[in-house]
Amino acid sequence: NQPPYLSALARAVAEWGWQKETMELLWTLTKYPQTQAEALQELYQRGADGGDTLGLYRVLQRLAELHPDDLRIQNNLAQVSLLLNADVERARKLAADL
Known about the structure:
By secondary structure, this protein is an all-alpha fold. The chain has helices at about 5-15, 20-30, 35-50, 55-65, 70-85, 90-95. The mean pLDDT is about 95.
């Protein structure tokens, strides 16, 4: 329940190659303001590197909630939503607005 320790554990688990556990810890870290940005950035990078479009979608949804005025995030969310055929109506409206 202490973000600094969870961050250290996430780094260690990642070094051990435990992907599932690393992802779970990173998502847990997104709940804490002091670790949220770094954890979301790491999750986004892992999704991009691994070709995990659904993972990118989840991260972008969270980022869009946190930063509703960031047009880059909104654009990326619209693109990934359309690729996944997820919440298409909202994605089309978002894309048209952008």
